[in-house]
Write a structure and sequence with these properties.
heterotetramer; A alpha+beta (236); B alpha/beta (184); C alpha/beta (571); D alpha+beta (178); B: 184 residues; alpha/beta; Rossmann fold; two-stranded antiparallel sheet; 7 helices; 32% helix; C: 571 residues; Glutaredoxin; 15 strands
């Protein structure tokens, strides 16, 4: 396993060949914000929060998808990048109904925490306030489209880890929606195995455990890594 | 706009389309209210029986979103007479619960509650003599006027308010810590 | 069929065509058909049948000749006479004209002047066969030097030689990107990988652009020949033509041309008895502008949602099913046969700076002569609009020309003398794009145009990345506010910030270029934006300013309620 | 790849339906390869007029693609409809050239005339009013299509009358809501 060395924020760091910039940065204690990325899942590259500047490349690169190569000079926290990240969080907060005060995961939401971290204390764009449905037909879990940020973690978890391929994104653009099978209510899905992995992976309050109080809505994010490691070890 | 700290700071608090939770959180300052009143003159607000919004106010804390025509006009007046306008609480900052009605139409809302529902008050054009007309959409303050500082939270706990007021009293911009600027 | 029998057959066809006393070419491309060319053709066939005893007349349905707004067009071609092109044909008039020609007394009504600037001032290389051959007849294409380039490439050129010739010609991607085609092919030729693919991008999602449709409908074999040469040069054995969903006739003609070519041994297994085999399948688009972007196009060919993936890795390394793939626009493939047939010097000699060769433009909008034109790179906008296009109808003033569709920008009057090439258009804040050229007069409001394109991008965004999915909606809402009168200047600052955000962080070209129409209208027509916001007035009189900014909303609402209107929803 | 086993329940009842045979022939022609999904959906949409849930489920089973991804593709592209369309289709082109020459006004006039929004179908299922990004005949701008006949160089005045006349003449050859 050959090593690759590069500069991140003018600091010499090293990582293994094939690792992404995000992984190398995080292994060296450099924090890059992400929402759609999750350790153990195939990177999606949709939320664009992990964009970084790479010297010699005109365009910004998504750290979760860009391979670390020898001798790169990467900057992860320039003023411009922080401004873009704040604006992306503002766009996400305005896109659907993220009313934290009355949300089932108030205090345990990655979007809420990221907004505070980046200093988004108000949203300058028009709130779209789309009238979106909720799906509580599933026995143990609920799906609230108002809180969904289309990060597709649930879609990837269901197809890559559980293999049931229940969830998929249907529609296009701003009208995209997470749907089960042929847009069936979750409770009537013929492929869902009720495993609840997607609920564990959801960054916001879109997928939640019914009956849990706000305080109990702590999700287990490293659960996925252990499943994947055990799977590798068992040689599957 | 630095505030001259020699004389007492003229402070006003206003309550638009909100639930007064933020004002109660302001009162949760408890003993620190004593220290506050040595530095501040409260010139307008639900706790003061001034009828008109006074001129030359240094700092105004505005709670609640802009939900009707009266709020809109009062907010314009506040902006005109206040040096620093602060959005206090999620309703003022994001529209929060008050803005939950934005998904639908005002006419449907009035019909559901008053024409077909249990509501007692008058409906249609004559209603406007008694009640201020509802805006088509509830708006956060900074979508209407320029806002100088934001204190998110529903309600923002008294620590955040104290930290913000401290900065304002020292004439510095409000810069809340990461854990003090979460919504919800 | 091998090369000798191909040349033998071409000689036969030419000889047979020269002896033919009278040929009538009826333009049956989509615009002319919708203007009634079908009835015209049957009327001509009836007259031809009447005179069949005395003289044999061949009535042929052809592709697009170019001046579509003068359709339906009929060309009468008789040996020893110049071609006579008639415009705005009706069945009766066409019959009368043909009868006149057959009795040596050709009438002059509706006759187009021989030196009509629209046709005379063009340099037709890619469009040389368009409107002159029957697109569904292989023989017509063979008679016009068809497949000679392929035969020559297989016989006289090595794959490296073909790539070198294309590189030497200076040909760049005609889809709008402008990436040197020769370089792209070299990348694919050198790429490892057993299965390589050649893809012709005929998605043409730009509204107001119809060059690729006209080329696919009028000269499908040319594209097939170009793709086969690309396959030979890069070592690919499979090609796909991605035809836009809204072009059923183009898809039908491509299918037919592929079957005819395979039956004639010019495509499929062992082309012209050489060891080279190349298959082509047609893939029909289904209505998604984003599928014009190459990685989304590949996803669509693989039967998936047309959502782009980041590059690198570029398709030349990791394309269809992970195998190396080259993707070129249909018009780019149209340029290949002449390069091999006449040598790269011909193309390299035309054009300015690094933009070599000719470009096809779809000239439409507020201009007298609407239609398809092919002009050398570097032609000025003034010549296209006024010399070729005949100026603005009703003598109205030229205001702007929009190029590149929703990813492009507008060129204002002060740049009428700008030369149309890749670098210059980019400097003016627009892009070459696929070639849609929409002319706008004083009657058009530029804010409304920016709103129209943002509405398009908002609707066509694939929704994968948040800056584009949510950004286009916010930009559209603000532009909608400007045109309905409820915008404030603070919003203008946010708009420009959003433009930069999308340009820098969007995942693909759609999001990165969606702000271009806004930025270019702001650059040249900022006064119109300010007139809408500050003076609540639309200079062009297009926008209905029915709403008011939030500061005036209070008394506006009171008036509406007093007038019994409770529909204050717009704000 | 050999043909998928056909499910025993209601699906087999469709075997004699000519439209189903057309879809199955297309599936066989593409050797049941998953990448043929869009081509199969085109044939299915052409045969049935819209993509019903049962039809999509059958295609998903035959191509061995999860049903959720089939819906993802069917709802991504503009050309596919999941609900029955009207007997006649009136598509108004709102490409740039048509828009600049008044296409937007024509859409508003027809929306008023038929009392529906673009993209909807009249309650009696007779006419579906839609808009298209660009039909590629910009020189005839502004243009609209009634089923397969085109009305080029149109103007707003009296447009509803001309559309009604064209609807009367044209037969789209498909019974409504099939």
């Amino acid at each position: 396993m050959s090593v690759v060395t590069l500069y991140i924020n003018d600091r010499l760091v090293s990582g293994r060949v094939g690792q992404t910039l995000l992984k190398v940065a995080r292994e060296n204690g450099i924090e890059i914000p992400t929402l759609c990325y999750l350790e153990g899942l195939e990177p999606w590259g949709g939320c664009r929060l992990c964009m970084v500047e790479v010297e010699g490349q005109g365009k910004l690169q998504a750290a979760c998808l860009t391979e670390a190569r020898e001798g790169l000079a990467v900057h992860t926290d320039s003023e411009r990048l922080l401004a873009w990240r704040r604006m992306i969080v503002e766009l996400l907060l305005a896109e659907r109904n993220h009313t934290c005060a009355v949300c089932v995961v108030n205090g345990h939401c990655e979007l809420q925490a990221l907004a505070a971290k980046l200093g988004v204390d108000h949203v300058r764009y028009d709130y779209l306030h789309p009238a979106l449905a909720m799906d509580v037909s599933q026995e143990r879990f609920g799906l609230d489209h108002n809180r969904c940020i289309l990060c597709t973690r649930c879609v990837r978890t269901c197809s890559e880890i559980e293999g049931a391929c229940t969830w998929a994104i249907s529609g296009r653009g701003i009208t995209s929606r997470v749907t089960a099978d042929l847009d069936r209510p979750w409770g009537k899905s013929t492929t869902c195995t009720d495993c609840g992995k997607c609920v564990q992976m959801c960054p916001t309050g879109a997928l939640y455990k019914k009956g849990a109080t706000v305080g109990e809505m702590v999700r287990e994010k490293t659960h996925l890594q252990q499943v994947m490691e055990r799977r590798q070890r068992s040689g599957k | 706009m630095t505030v001259v700290s020699a004389r007492k700071l003229r402070l006003a608090t206003v309550w638009l389309g909100g639930c007064s939770g933020c004002h109660m959180s302001l009162l949760d300052l408890d003993e620190r209210l004593m220290e506050l009143q040595t530095k501040v003159d409260l010139v307008y607000g639900p706790l003061v029986d001034a009828k008109e919004f006074p001129r030359e106010v240094d700092v105004t804390l505005v709670e609640g979103a802009v939900a009707n025509v009266d709020h809109l006009e009062l907010l314009e007046t506040i902006r005109g007479h206040s040096a620093i306008l602060v959005s206090l609480g999620d309703c003022a900052v994001t529209g929060n619960v008050t803005a939950l009605r934005n998904g639908g139409k005002v006419s449907d809302l009035l019909t559901t509650i008053y024409r077909a529902g249990p509501g007692r008050s008058p409906v249609g054009p004559e209603a406007v003599q008694a009640l201020p007309a509802l805006l088509p959409k509830v708006l956060p303050l900074h979508h209407v006027v320029d806002v100088d500082a934001f204190i998110p939270g529903c309600p923002p706990d008294s620590e955040r308010i104290w930290a913000a007021l401290g900065a304002l009293l020292r004439g510095e911009p409000v810069a809340l810590e990461e854990n003090q600027r979460t919504f919800g | 069929m091998n090369q000798q029998r191909l040349q033998e057959r071409v000689r036969q066809l030419r000889e047979q065509q020269s002896t033919n006393p009278c040929r009538v070419l009826v333009c049956c491309s989509s615009p002319c058909l919708s203007a009634g060319a079908g009835a015209v053709k049957s009327a001509l066939e009836a007259v031809a049948a009447e005179h069949s005893g005395r003289v044999s007349v061949e009535v042929t349905a052809t592709g697009c000749l170019g001046p579509c707004s003068r359709g339906p067009l009929v060309t009468v071609r008789r040996p020893g006479h110049a071609d006579a092109v008639y415009e705005r044909m009706t069945p009766e008039l066409a019959g009368k004209i043909l009868a006149g020609h057959l009795t040596e007394t050709p009438p002059a009504d509706n006759l187009l002047p021989a030196d009509l600037p629209f046709l005379a001032r063009q340099t037709r290389i890619v469009l040389e066969n368009c409107g002159r051959i029957d697109p569904e007849n292989l023989d017509h294409y063979l008679a016009a030097d068809g497949y000679a380039a392929l035969a020559r490439a297989l016989h006289d050129f090595s794959p490296e030689g073909v790539c070198a010739a294309v590189e030497q010609s200076g040909l760049r991607g005609r889809g709008g990107g402008g990436y040197p085609t020769g370089l792209k092919w070299q990348l694919l030729r050198k790429a490892a990988g057993q299965r390589k693919f050649v893809v012709a991008n005929g998605d043409e999602g730009d509204p107001g652009a119809f060059m690729d449709r006209a080329l696919m409908e009028s000269d499908p074999h040319r594209i097939i020949e170009g793709m086969a040469i690309a396959g030979y040069a890069t070592g690919a054995a499979q090609g796909y033509v991605y035809v836009r969903g809204e072009y059923p006739m183009a898809a039908r003609r491509m299918h037919k041309a592929i079957r005819d070519a395979e039956r004639a041994g010019l495509l499929g297994m062992r082309i012209l008895d050489s060891p080279f085999s190349f298959r082509i399948d047609v893939r029909l688009g289904a209505g998604a502008f984003v599928c014009g972007e190459e990685t989304a196009l590949m996803a669509s060919i693989m039967g998936r949602r047309g959502q782009p993936v980041p590059r690198p890795p570029y398709p030349a390394e990791h394309g269809l099913w992970g195998e190396p793939t080259v993707i070129n626009n249909v018009e780019t493939f149209g340029n290949i046969p002449p390069i091999i047939r006449n040598g790269p010097e011909q193309l390299a000699a035309i054009g300015t700076g690094r933009s070599r060769g000719t470009k096809i433009f779809a000239l439409c909008g507020e201009v007298i002569e609407n239609g398809l034109i092919e002009v050398p790179m570097g032609t000025t906008l003034r010549e296209i609009v006024f010399a070729i296009g005949g100026g603005i109808p009703g003598g109205a003033a030229f205001k702007a020309a929009q190029t590149g569709g929703p990813s492009g920008g507008c060129i204002a009057a002060q740049h009428l003398d700008a030369s149309m090439d890749y670098e210059n258009l980019q400097a003016l804040g627009s892009i070459m794009g696929s070639g849609g050229l929409i002319i706008m007069s004083e009657k058009t409001c530029m804010v409304d145009v920016a709103r129209f394109f943002m509405d398009f991008c908002m609707d066509e965004s694939c929704g994968k990345c948040s800056p584009c999915r949510a950004g286009t909606v916010q930009m559209y809402r603000f532009l909608d506010r400007v045109s309905n009168g409820s915008a404030t200047e603070r919003g203008l600052v946010h708009l420009e910030e959003l433009c930069r955000l999308m340009k820098e962080t969007s995942l693909c070209g759609l999001g990165a270029s969606a702000p271009n129409p806004v930025l270019s209208t702001l650059r040249y027509f900022r006064d119109e934006y300010l007139a809408h916001i500050r003076e609540h007035r639309c200079p062009a009189g297009v926008c209905r300013m029915t709403e008011v900014p939030v500061t005036l909303l209070a008394d506006e609402l009171m008036q509406r309620i007093a007038a019994g209107r409770l529909d204050g929803e717009a704000f | 790849m050999e043909a998928r086993p056909v499910l025993p329940d209601a699906i087999t009842a469709h075997v004699d339906d000519p439209r189903r045979r057309l879809v199955d022939q297309t599936l066989k022609r593409f050797q049941y390869r998953p990448d043929a999904l869009i081509e199969v959906l085109h044939v299915a949409q052409g045969a049935y007029g819209f993509l019903g849930e049962e039809l999509l489920s059958h295609i998903a089973c035959q191509l061995n693609i999860p049903e959720s991804q089939i819906l993802g593709v069917a709802t991504f592209y503009h050309a596919f409809a999941l609900r029955p369309r009207g007997e006649h289709c009136c598509i108004v082109c709102t490409g740039t050239a048509c828009y600049v020459k008044g296409g937007g006004e024509i859409v508003k006039a027809l929306e008023a005339a038929y009392g529906i929004q673009a993209g909807q179908t009249t309650p009696d299922g007779r006419v579906s009013l839609g808009t298209a990004r660009c039909l590629g005949t910009c020189s005839q701008a502004p243009l609209l299509m009634i089923d397969n006949t085109a009305l080029g160089h149109e103007v707003v005045e009296g447009i509803a009358g001309r559309v009604a006349a064209a609807l009367g003449k044209s037969s789209s050859g498909r019974e409504p809501g099939s």
